[in-house]
Design brief:
By secondary structure, the protein is of the alpha+beta class. Helix content is 16%, strand content 26%. It contains five helices and nine strands; from the N terminus they run ααβββββαααββββ. The chain has helices at 19-22, 26-33, 121-131, 138-142, 145-151, and strands spanning 37-42, 45-58, 86-91, 95-102, 109-118, 170-173, 183-186, 203-206, 220-222. A hairpin with a 2-residue loop joins strand 1 (37-42) and strand 2 (45-58). Helix 3 packs across helix 5. It is globular, with a radius of gyration of 16 Å. The termini are close together. 46% of the residues are buried.
């Protein structure tokens, strides 16, 4: 039987995600986050966007995860929280990445948000203003972890922010039922160090969506069950 953790297309526009989603492990949570709405409160107004690409980092056994082997540091500590908060980190000294922490306390799972799509023209304008650079195609705006963080003004000050509580700087709301979406899965991006885990098909995205960061030739249809 299919499990719907997010509500359908006709659900109230600003209803929060169900707590059950945050309790899932990252591999199961990642496709369920597709179609859901990420909300960022800024000084210029609220920005709402739809999640169109995710990537799973599945616990202490995943060699691609920052918490591989149970590594618990100042950086990774938030990954060991109970699901429902944000994990924000910096890569290459210049790009922030936004993750949704999932699963139970002390079980470090996280879902990287790789691409989002603005819900309205106003949202797109606010995101472009945050980006501050020329946008020639949709993926230039928010297709990729670093781009979407710049478009939503996400930085390390939002690390550990609660995503399951409305009223803060960042939260998640119900969008479309992921069961209704055309989802594909493929290997994750740029993690050769993960050895045998590098080829796990733990990246999920909406087929044909122009905001997706990378279209993979290895992508296969994915059906939620």
């Amino acid at each position: 039987m299919k499990q719907n953790y997010s509500g359908g297309r006709d659900a109230a526009a600003q209803r929060m995600l169900r707590p059950e989603l945050y309790a899932l492990d990252a591999v199961n949570a990642a496709p369920h986050l597709l179609g859901q709405h990420l909300v960022r409160r800024t000084g210029a107004g609220e920005i709402r966007c739809r999640i169109v690409e995710t990537e799973s980092y599945g616990g202490a056994e995943d060699k691609g995860s920052h918490a591989y082997g149970g590594r618990r540091t100042a950086r990774t500590e938030v990954m060991f929280s109970a699901g429902g908060c944000a994990y924000v980190y910096l890569i290459y000294g210049m790009y922030h990445c936004l993750n949704v922490v999932t699963a139970a306390e002390d079980d470090p799972h996280a879902v990287l948000i790789r691409a989002v799509e603005p819900l309205t023209a106003k949202d797109a304008e606010l995101m472009a203003a945050c980006r501050g650079t020329a946008v020639r195609k949709p993926s230039d705006l928010s297709g990729g972890p670093g781009k979407l963080c710049r478009a939503l003004a996400v930085d390390k000050t939002l690390n550990a922010a609660r995503l399951d509580l409305r009223g803060g700087p960042l939260w998640l709301e119900q969008g479309e039922a992921p069961e209704s979406l055309d989802i594909v899965q493929s290997p994750r991006i740029n993690i050769p160090y993960a050895e045998e885990y590098a080829e796990r098909p733990w990246r999920f995205y909406l087929r044909g969506n122009p905001y997706v960061s990378v279209v993979s030739r290895e992508a296969q249809p994915f059906v939620l069950s």
